[in-house]
Amino acid sequence: MAETRGEGKAWCAWRTPWSKEIAHRAKSGERPIGQTSGIGFLGGFNVGEKIMTFARFCLIGTAGMLILTPPPAGAADDIVMLSIADAMNLPAAKEKLDDSVKFYFGHQPAPKITQTHGNFVANPKTNAFAKSEGKACDWVFLSALISLRDRARSVGANAVVNIQSYYKKHEVSSETQFECHKGFLMAGVTLRGDVVRTEAR
User: Fold this and answer.
1) Is 15 exposed, middle or buried (0-12, 13-18, 19+ CB in 10 A)?
2) What is the CATH number of the domain that holds 99?
3) Is the pTM of this model over 0.70?
């Protein structure tokens, strides 16, 4: 098909419905569809190959849109409360955390404090795409605990007390649960606690 850009018409045959191309070939005596075609920017390819190529473009484009398109404007994160004990009993938690730093949540009683090293906030994020809220939130909670532990170690402390959820400075104190915010792509947990040294129990 000749170019007719100046007339504002479609100038690539692949954009014309396939039924029109078949009718054009039948009328002009060109080779049957399925044989080599020389029209359009995909000229020189078998028509069947053009269909397959176009289908691949559609599939790839659709997949890309699903991955890259953000959630609707104003969409809020899901706020969930999850078990501290369940998260700390996961194999990953037992592997990465040890007894060098103890964690005390909410108003859990702790040994006598002998030295204080200030308040510390851990605010990690993790990829949540295509993950369950439990898996994403448990992992980011563990990351927050690791940050608290590392802070305690860096100042010679052996405990973090009064730990509470503190996402966007909103205090949620609990001895049994932590707060997690899970969005379309990311999940976040914020923990705040007092870094201290206690007497050995």
Assistant:
1) exposed
2) 3.30.110.70
3) no
